[in-house]
Design goal:
Elements (H helix, E strand, L loop, with lengths): L2 H8 L2 H20 L2 H5 L2 E8 L5 E3 L1 H13 L6 E13 L2 E11 L15 E7 L2 E8 L6 H12 L2 H22 L4 E2 L8 E7 L3 E5 L2 E5 L4 E2 L31 E3 L3 H7 L14 E4 L12 E3 L2 E3 L1
Parallel strand pairs: 1-6, 12-13
Antiparallel strand pairs: 1-2, 3-4, 4-5, 5-6, 7-14, 8-11, 8-13, 9-10, 14-15
Length: 302
């Protein structure tokens, strides 16, 4: 009797169908923007490891994390994909491997750089199946890996030079294609947006104590809604000095980055590192006055 025969005796087609249904249930919940629906197949004590290393513990945390993401940074995205395989370890334990592709808002085709290959650990309890563990990993091509290997092999100074070229390339692209930000009066500036950056507050250890900070921002590639208190996907920690209707968006000139590279030679300075929402170029603080109004897309900022 081989292992396949034994597996067939321990499980039924209904077991495999129930496990495969989790994949479709989670895709449907994602596309509806439902964190609760996305987390429903998980056990109360499940572990979810995101592709960037965040460890979510339990169904409630999985639901809350994804609902916040659905409402902000991944709002409007859609998933598609298929089950690669289901393998039964025994009658109570199985593995499922799937392929996930992402369609960004306003797009009709998937974005290959976001392809992922989640691996599920599924258990049977009280007659029903549930997800106990999920490890999400991004699909990485050999060409991309070779590029990263080459980059890692460079000296620290060479890596900084590459990052500087990348930032300058972004600035050049912005100067060619970004929409001009215009003052509402007759004067026009050639200010360009290099990067739009958002991030939610997180806790860090500072001088032996835990503090909450909103300085960590990451560039986004999609359009972002600007609301009265902040951008979608963004937040401030200390609202006594940040945020609010009078400080909803933080703008910082890219021209200052050269100064900070001299001051912080060992730090990789990418857009958003100073906590700004808009990294801009071709304008300085002395050119701006209180009360000036700027039209950016469909929003007016003052």
């Amino acid at each position: 009797m081989n292992s396949q025969t034994t597996q067939n005796q321990l499980t039924s087609p209904a077991d495999e169908s129930a496990i495969r249904a989790f994949h479709h249930q989670m895709i449907d919940a994602w596309n509806r923007g439902s964190g609760e629906g996305f987390a429903a197949p998980f056990s109360k004590t499940a572990d979810f490891l995101t592709f960037e290393g965040t460890h979510l513990k339990g169904r409630k945390e999985i639901a809350a994390f994804h609902q916040q993401a659905f409402d902000t940074v991944i709002k409007g995205t859609c998933l598609e994909g298929e089950v690669n395989f289901v393998r039964f370890v025994n009658s109570q334990l199985a593995l499922m491997h799937v392929v996930i592709r992402v369609i960004l808002p306003g797009q009709t085709e998937t974005s290959p750089s976001r392809d992922s290959l989640p691996l599920y650990v599924v258990t049977k309890c009280d007659g029903g199946w549930q997800i106990e563990r999920l490890l999400n990993t991004r699909k990485l091509t050999l060409e991309r890996q070779f590029f990263l290997d080459d980059f890692d092999s460079l000296s620290a100074e060479a890596q900084r030079q590459v990052n500087r070229l990348r930032c300058r390339s972004q600035a050049a692209a912005a100067s060619r294609s970004s929409t001009d930000l215009k003052l509402s009066k007759t004067l026009e500036l050639n200010m360009k947006i290099i990067s739009v950056n958002v991030g939610l507050p997180r806790e860090v250890n500072w001088k032996g104590r835990t503090v909450s900070t909103g300085i960590f921002k990451e560039p986004v590639i999609d359009r972002v809604m600007v609301r009265s208190l902040n951008l979608d996907g963004d937040g401030q920690a200390d609202l006594t000095v940040h945020g609010g209707v009078d400080k909803a968006v933080y703008v910082y000139p890219f021209e200052h980055y050269d100064y900070w590279r001299d001051q912080l030679p060992d730090t990789e300075l990418t857009p958003g590192i100073f906590g700004e929402n808009f990294t801009v170029t071709e304008v300085r603080e002395e050119e701006i006055n209180i009360g000036d109004r700027f039209q950016i897309g469909t929003v007016e900022l003052m």
